[in-house]
Amino acid sequence: MITFTVTGSNSPLSQQTNSSSTLQTLVGQSGLNSANSKRLVVKFGGSSLADRKRIEHAAHMISKESRKGTKLVVVVSAMGKMTDQLISLVNHSDKSDLDDVLAMGERTSIRIFAAALKAEGLDARYFDPSDAEWPIITDDEFSDANPMVELCVQNVQKHVLPLLDSGTIPVIAGFIGRSTKGRVSTIGRGGSDTTAFIIAKGIAANEVILVTDADGILSADPKIIPNAKKLEKIDVKTLIGLADSGTKFIHRKALRYKDADIPVRVIGHHKDDLDADGTVISGSISNEIEVTFASNSPTMSVTVAGRGISENPAIISELSQAIKENSMLNGLSADFDSIIFYAPQDSDTLLDKVHSAVTKHSEVVAIAVQRDLAFLRIKGVGLEDTPGIIGRISMLLRENRINIFGILTLASGILVFISWGDKEKAMNLMKQVITESF
Length: 438
Description:
This protein folds into 2 domains: 8-286, Carbamate kinase; 290-437, 2-Layer Sandwich (VC0802-like). Helix content is 36%, strand content 24%. The protein has 12 helices and 19 strands. The chain has helices at residues 12-30, 52-66, 82-89, 95-119, 149-165, 191-203, 236-244, 252-255, 313-326, 350-358, 389-399, 423-437; strands at 3-6, 39-44, 71-76, 124-127, 137-138, 169-173, 176-179, 184-186, 207-212, 233-235, 264-268, 279-282, 289-293, 299-306, 331-334, 338-344, 364-379, 404-410, 413-419. A hairpin with a 2-residue loop joins β18 (404-410) and β19. The two termini are 22 Å apart. The relative contact order is 0.11.
């Protein structure tokens, strides 16, 4: 596989890579790997802090864990629906002013939660973006700001870590940052999770715990599937696919900041303590946009044509079985009257088996084959947030007289099928589009 990678200078990956040596030095200086130094970052979502009873319960969960000797950092969201209420009160086109208003939800939460921890007999200190020691520094993209990871990690090591070592529990406002020019910014969707992941990297946490209104991540939306089950574990790459498909439990932007070596556990706010079972999220995702030749040999497209094919599930089932037994599937699309699939063309038996399997059904009229195609894949987080990317790819290929025989979209990915003879030229043109877009 040949890979072309584009990594922006401000991407979380590039910044994390640059900060790794600094982090290792600071970790060594601070003794993060010493015995009895379990470290947790606990984020409470808005529903977990919706009223006094829930705030007191959340504070008790922290107190119970702290008395075990665990060193904790707490990240809080705005209480309940406060952010939505603030949005409804503001009608202003300046995003910087809007961020200043929206940040009031989290800035209020940190003060209330720090007071609740003190009522539990704990030593707590809240961090506000007006503080000189505030750790989360962002760019100037107000309302969707991007944390400067290397600088954030350094700030956490300098200002947050000493409090942990002295027995104080830092309470940090999630979702908000401070720009390099000193203005309050907001990180956008998933902002509090983003804050928690960055803090966790800075203190070399053993785990991040996300406390929310659900017991974990479910196998489906319970509003649609009432008997959806809680997942014991899920990989980030699978979770990002769900996020791209509309499930916004953890926003894909936040997942870009998750450290591969720090697991995340999602638990319900009604649990009695932080050891509760939930869903464990493992792994990490690349922040690179990759353009690859997905196959080193020619691919073919096979069209199964007829009328009402999609109304007969047996056709799809038998087609899938024939492909499985004789080749492999590179891609598939379907509508009411036809199915098009893409597979390596080096199989000697695939076409005969497919023809025999599908033409016995009255809905199928014939199959057609297009050979000598190249299969290119563009993959990476950020594609789905880039309007017009498919149009730009299609236009540039058209302008260079390269025909597209198929184009499929999926979670954070685009599959493009073009003539095998045009593959090198098409690859260079697609690189150009990605470079200009990111």
